[in-house]
Specification:
about 30% strand; alpha/beta; about 35% helix; extended; 5-stranded mixed β-sheet
């Protein structure tokens, strides 16, 4: 009985590997991201934003080497204009906010060897959360955790977009003759 279960598990593993299945976060990186320098442009920051830490962690976990200098990198992942905003979604009968919408937005581009491989683009994520003035310390902590989670999610989405652009075949001009 155990031998049959072991054979079934082995067969399932071989079939899933043969079809191109990869566990989440284990896809091989494109060569452009093998040695990367993360250039986060954030004026007046004392510490690294969670987005930079999440990007570095995800890249290293998937086999990329992070360059310490621009000259040591194969490509430069430039991240700029990281903005976080909070807007009121609803108020109670007394005019106090009871629900907020948090939005985090960032611009990015990838440059490899002086050539822009991924054109400048922006990405954003939003989350709603309720607010209770009776629990102000807990809600402030919840908002901080939510902001960090959103930046972690941005890192994943940003890498997915970069991989999609790098995997796409190069664009052919409309007036180019058909390939034979």
């Amino acid at each position: 009985m155990r031998a049959a279960a072991a054979v079934a598990c082995l067969l399932l593993a071989l079939l899933s590997a043969a079809c191109g299945f990869h566990w989440a976060g284990t896809r091989p990186l494109p060569p452009a991201l093998s040695v990367v320098y993360i250039d986060v442009v954030t004026p007046y920051r004392v510490s690294k934003p969670p987005l930079e830490q999440a990007l570095a962690s995800r890249l290293q976990r998937r086999g990329s080497r992070l360059a310490k200098t621009l000259s040591g990198a194969r490509s430069i992942l430039r991240v700029s204009e990281l903005t976080e905003s909070r807007e009121v979604l609803s108020v109670d009968p007394f005019g106090k906010a009871v629900e907020y919408k948090l939005t985090t937005r960032v611009q990015y581009q990838l440059v490899e060897g002086g050539t822009v491989r991924v054109a400048p683009d922006a990405i954003q994520v939003s989350r709603d959360y309720s607010f209770n003035a009776q629990q102000i310390l807990a809600k402030e902590a919840e908002e901080a955790r939510l902001q960090a989670f959103m930046q972690d999610e941005l890192a994943e989405l940003l890498l997915l977009r970069i991989e999609a652009v790098l995997a796409a075949p190069p664009a052919v001009p409309a007036d180019a003759p058909p390939a034979r």
